[in-house]
Amino acid sequence: MLDFTLDPAGSEPIFLQIAARVRSAIAAGEIAPGARLPSTRALAARLSVARGTVDAAYAALAGEGAVLTRGSIGTVVSGAVGARPGPVGHTPFMFGAIPASDATPPLPFRVGLPALDAFPQRLWSNLTTHAVRGFQAADLAGSETAGVLALRQAVASYLGAARGIACAPGQVLVTAGYQGALTLVRHVLVRAGDPVWLEDPGYHLCRQALETAGARVVPVRVDQDGLRVAAGVAAAPRAKLAVVTPTHHCPTGVAMSLPRRLELLAWAAEAGSWILEDDYDSEFRYSGRPLPSLKSLDRGERVLYAGSFSKTLFPALRLGYLVVPAELAAAFLRAARLTSLALPALEQTVAAAFMRKGHFTRHIRRMRHLYADRRRALAAALQTVFGERIRLEPAAGGLHLLARFPGAADDTELVRRAAAAGLAPSALSPLALAHDCGHGLLLGFANIAAEEAEATAARLAGAIG
């Protein structure tokens, strides 16, 4: 069963090749409805690919309804006995179902969330009231496509002071978070079939978003110095775009070294390519000197810089920003008119006031100290509870810890056990596309108070064994 070969040099991503082969086998009746597919680990070993690649293939098939995931039983072919599913063509949106969210408090270890308990809600409420009272009739008609000018001015000022980025408000577009920025980049810079470098392992939603645009994703290995530029050049020397997280790699937390940054910029200038810098979590660094942004080193104007308020303020705000080279500003404004029209003016006005009055800088400073305490407390608690059964891989910044458990079950199984106990860590291995990064758990610490760290670590130990 599932005896096939892959074409690493083909234009179609490996995970889509796997999904197509499995789909064809189902359609031909070679795999009966109800039959169990090989485990992701077994199939990855058989095909000599990363396990995350097979995970992505199975997720695509599950999104189509071709297979079902049944916990400990594994992945099985759907359909009634004797039925033969017809062939299903690939569409850009054939990904696994997105779990519904709710308004319950965040579960321990959930990644990607700031400390919601420490946000100054009363101050934000007062600024909101003041903004509403100050609105004129013209303000109710809608906001500018690029974003409220006051917020774009505040962002440009902040980036100049905090990240060394010299930009005019006309180069700043307010977006619906990072995904909104990525949508604009896709529309303006990426065409179907264009090769795009992505860090491997990397942010899965970024990969999926690019694939919906028909981009040919080129996974590029990340090591202790960040993206291996030479590997990217060997795989796709004229890639249209490289998407990177140089300050705090998602998910390992490593920072791209200065030589690698300069090498990446030199490649982009020589190849005429673009770089999208996702500078998430750059505000939260706990050791060493702050790292310059890649954009601040960009003399050739090849870098687009994306930031978000989701982790510095709160995710429900759904505001981010994109800084583009001056020569691209008009094209991005046209794309914004076609894709998003304009974001709500009230939230932008409040965020602008929060920054202009100095509250943003003070909030970041307070959160940095709070996160350092919570990070230190959780790391110590995990080491105490697990002892030699855990290995924490240090990172200078960010809002999560990377923990490895030598000799334990694979990380997706550990996540399943933790979820059953009301905990929400994330697995590392499924984030790899072509290069195995091993197994580990991503443990968010922002919403775990220091005094709760040991009890929470004990809950995790009880859940995963």
Automatic annotation (TrEMBL):
Keywords: DNA-binding, Pyridoxal phosphate, Transcription, Transcription regulation. It comes from the Bacteria. InterPro entries: Aminotransferase_I/II_large, HTH_trans_reg/aminotransferase, PyrdxlP-dep_Trfase, PyrdxlP-dep_Trfase_major, Tscrpt_reg_HTH_GntR, WH-like_DNA-bd_sf, WH_DNA-bd_sf. GO terms for molecular function: DNA binding; DNA-binding transcription factor activity; pyridoxal phosphate binding. SUPFAM superfamilies: PLP-dependent transferases (SSF53383), Winged helix' DNA-binding domain (SSF46785). CDD domains: AAT_like, WHTH_GntR. Gene3D superfamilies: Type I PLP-dependent aspartate aminotransferase-like (Major domain), Winged helix-like DNA-binding domain superfamily/Winged helix DNA-binding domain. SMART domains: HTH_GNTR. Residues 12-80 form the HTH gntR-type domain. In the C-terminal section; belongs to the class-I pyridoxal-phosphate-dependent aminotransferase family. This is HTH gntR-type domain-containing protein.
